[in-house]
Amino acid sequence: MHLYLVRHPRPIVAANTCYGSTDLEVTAEELALAHASLLPVLPKKAVLFSSPLRRCRELSASLAETLGCQAPTYDERLAEMHFGDWEMRSWDDIPRASVNAWSNDMVAYQPGGGESVLQVAQRVRAFRDELSGLNIEHAIVICHAGIIRLLAACEHGLSIPEMALYAAQKPHKIRYGELLVVDC
């Protein structure tokens, strides 16, 4: 299977804001830019999966129509990590001690009382395992940088805790609207 992992377009949010699972909009311009850049490189009639968050949902719906795919399957397991009471706060306003506690335990700590990377890894692995059993040649997944990192980590044959640690320790440079292709 060829897995096409796409990060959503840039959402409407202030810089330096923690916004994991918050359901943010994207501008029509950002959506059009991502759509135009992805259209020539994504396979037609592929099976399309998406995070249910609006910044992914809008892109997946427009791509499905243009690529001749069936309607996207919106899967909660593809939503970005929930940062609890850190959501929509400036990173500068989050107590340094809390950020340090997360840095000291990137896998199990639940930032803001939300999800841990381990919990997110468990749901992402469940999605990936289910996807493996579908006998699909091309799958497009519209999601978030954290989810892309975890899906890519699945391909290394790691246990779920190792997958979470791998994704948490590896800084990402996944741009908005960027595509990563993984041959499974």
TrEMBL record:
Protein name: Alpha-ribazole phosphatase
Database matches in InterPro entries: His_Pase_superF_clade-1, His_PPase_superfam
Matches recorded under SMART domains: PGAM (SM00855)
Naturally occurring in which organism (per UniProt): Herminiimonas fonticola
